[in-house]
Sequence to fold (915 residues):
Amino acid sequence: MILRKLRVQQFRCFRNPVELSGLGMGVHVIHAPNETGKSSLVLAIARALFDRYSTRDREIQQLRPWQTTLSPRITLEFETGGKRFRLEKAFLDEATSLLDEWTGTRFERVADSHSADEFVRSAIASTLPGSGATKVGHWGLARLLWLNQGPERHELPGLDSAIKGRLLETVGIAALSSEEQALLKAVEAAYCKFYTPKTGKPVAGSDLVQCEERIRVLEGEVTKLEQRRGEAGRSADEIADTRHQLASLTEEKTGYAQQLVDLQEHIEVESALEQRIALRKKDAERQHEFWKGLDQKQRDLLELQTKAAKHEDQAARRQPALQEAQAAAHRAQDTRREAQERLKVQQEEQEKVDQRLERSRLLEKALGTLEEQRRLEGLIKQGTRLETAFQNSLRKTAALNRVSESDVKRAENVERKLSQAQERLAAQGIEVRFTAETPQSLEWEVQGHLREYKVTRDEQKRFEGVTAGELRIKGVGRLSLRTEAAELGKLQAEVDKLRKDLARRLHEQGAQDLAGLRTAWENQRDLLQEHQKHEGALSAFLEAAGFASIDAAREKCRILAGELGGMAEQLALRVEDLGTYTFPTAELLAEEAKARRREVKSREKARDEADAGVQNAEQHMRTLTQERMSALQQAQALRQAMQSQMVALGGSMEQLGAEVERAAAEHQRTENMLKGMLAELPPPDARATTRRKQIQQALERVEEAARAAREKIIRAEMVIGQAVTDDLYAQLCLAEEALALEKARHQQGMTRARAAEALRILTSAWQEQVSRSFVGPIEEEVHARLDYIRGGSRPGRLLLDADFGDAQMQTAAGPKPLDSFSWGTQEQTLFALRLAIGGLLSTKGPRPEPQLVVLDDALVNTDAIRHRRALELIETAGDTLQVLILTAFPERYRTLRGMKVFDLKALEQESPASP
Fold:
């Protein structure tokens, strides 16, 4: 398949239509900067050829131009199988698919909608895609011939059955016979009954799997029945053992009950002693709390006394520093008062200098305004002269009867069309006559109707006005003729129409003929040029002067005169005296004002420093005063708190100490009595209550063991009874017999499955041998091209597997994977593979056909020397292939001979904008 024309509209970055026409055999270079749509063109061809027009998944939605709802549209004209087709396809909202065939004079519809898509896919060996947009695997022969941008760029194009069959046919390997294919299908069907082709695992739901499942079920049933049989036997033994154990537990329970009766008297004695100990513990705890409370109160009073003395001592130490801070504050206030007086004097002097400076600046401004006013008066005089000349030329041009150059050109165009029409009329004015030697009977066919005439010399006029006909003379032959009468009438009408149009145009402009119209237009042009000259001079003057008009200049002059009078009044001078009045310059006064301001700043700084000193002294004095008062207040508060606590206790510090000692002695006496009572009580492990608890726990365990033994006997009896009821032994025999039969059937199925697997291995090896036989010629073609690109500098050849799923390079160290070599080697190998397959499909086999090879920046990692050799291969391939090169570097392909170049950016700019 080769392309003849491509038109893309509303497709990704192509919102406006872009068309590539004049395509054919040979090399075509399409260049544009990066990110301008080169790869989008390849994608547009693929989407048109391989995708269903009704597809609406996310990849197709992304074909819309950015932030629009436009429907992508693609038109392709291509040749395949010796026929030429036109495919028009639109996606999404306006989805359509129309296929037309060229009949020699025009395109005629052959299919539409899904039938058009199916027709195109069958013509280009494309496989039916799944749901959504197609992947590269569905692109038919294009997956072998297109080297486009994408993640699969450096991957080998895998082969499906259809493409592999086409390559086998191309290299001259006969396809399998119908009997052989039937045998392969039968072997594959037999294998598929037992195993899945991809994973080699058993087929879910097959007879073999079902048989294995039944075996597992039967084995489970046999195991369960055997377990139940063993459980019934064990249950009979457990009944006898458990009854003996139950008798022993009954005797042990009786012994524990007698021990509990014997311990009751000891428990009563120990309980009375424990009650007396508990009362004594409470007395000891109460006395301890009383002693601790008195001791804590004594400690708190002593701490308050210490803190009060500490704060009084701190207040006494602050008194000398406070007196010194008061004296420093008085000194700082005197310093601040002197600094303020000096600052005031300096500010008055600065104000006088500023007033003199302001008067000097006002005088300079008045003098500048006076000079500007005089300049404006001179400009106004000059502008008035130019404005008068402009007005005079304006009056002249206003009186003209305007004739535009377009009117002259339209009149000349009408005259030229009139002359051409008259020439065509003279050329078409050919009279057709027929002269008969003798009257004859003729059959005259007019617009499909036969008429019979007796033609004489006077009746020759019957031919006039007939546009077409066929004269058949019996015994002579046929004569076909055409008089051109209808064309003559049309030409005459066109001449009359153009003559009237020319006369109307001349009349509207008041001219006698075309020469007079042109003379009037030239005179008018001279006057307009003179007017434009005056207008330009006035505009240039106003632009140079910086005014919109002369009136604006006069207005500004009046404004300046008013400002000048106001400034003279402020200076108490007349306008005439401004130029002669003398006063110190603003520069001198400005220097003096700067000096005065520096002095004022210096005085202000001294004043600020004095203020800061006063504030610091006062703040220091306030801080010391506050610290002394705070210390005295805290000492007084502590003394009062201590006094109030002593009053609450009702005694002195000495009395409180004696009370603390008495409470400590009473607490110690109670503790000694408690220790004596605890010595009379036995240890916890030897007490009767502890022993009673242990015996009770043992008794509970015995009762629990007896209850468990009785339940165990009941369960064992139930198991034995259920086994007798279910006829357990008969069920076990039946299950074992069914398991043996099912295992025999499974062994037969496994024998057939292994036979089918072995037969499939043999047929697969045979198919692999047939498949490998067509790879050799392809490897030779690739090696020849790759060796030419490398210049024979490196040994090694490409090794392909039968399905193009893997590739290796033969080296001196043995085969190595292709992806272990450099990017340059990989892209050169894949480039050579495309050219080799394209060359074979175009020239070999029973049905050779030119093919389209797409190279989207295919040699970006190739050095200059190898790139030049690759271009030579492309030139040679252009004789039998259509090579489409997309690149951002057109200078790399300028040496190609006979190529067609398309500037995609220029084509996009030339395309009309979408409505």
Remarks:
- The longest helix spans residues 264-398.
- The chain has 19 helices and 18 strands.
- Confidence is low (pLDDT under 50) at residues 429-440, 463-467.
